[in-house]
Amino acid sequence: MIAVADYGASNTRSVLRALRAAGAEAELTADPAVVRGADRVVLPGVGNFAPASRRLAETGLGDAIREAAQAGRPVLGICLGLQLFLAESEEAPGVPGLGLIGGRVVRFRTELPVPHVGWARVALTGAGRAHAALARAFAGGGGGGGTSFLYHVHSYHPADVAPETDLAEADYGGAFPTVVGRANVLGVQFHPEKSQAAGLALLREFAAWAP
Questions:
Q1: Residue among 152, 120, 123 nearest 135 (CA)
Q2: Which of 2, 40, 148, 157 is deepest in the core (most CB within 10 A)?
Q3: Single pTM value for the model
């Protein structure tokens, strides 16, 4: 069973519906014990880093997600959920993230309109092509194997991530990591639940992923 952590983020139910549409058994839960006991965990999110981080701490869900990750169970962060996996964010100086992946979150530095909204071509890096679940999800995607078009809505993105954790990149006034991960932890800056067949393919592969 996949536990979708419910900490007040606005896109939790759409993520739950997408997981079920992808054929996964998934449950929306605010109970840290359910998260600890789940086969795999999804942390969705839309909104501001600071209140989301505080809510994870207050509810105990943050510790439960850390424990699930440390136990080796697959964990997926989506949009703000990915950003919360990192140590810190420019959006909320001094507010800690979960620290599951090295790096930080920065605001776009571009003359293009911010937030970045819309479909973007996402290309796997060398590390991403070696990631079995991602490689399968991206196979035959828009533009051929190793690339896909996925829907983004964000003003901030990961930065300063290690090359081995930078799994896929997109471009918006410059390249930025849009999939990051290590071991059993995976985070995506885009919204798979809004990305039609390409997004469902990624969720389907996550549901079957055995790191």
A1: 123
A2: 148
A3: 0.95
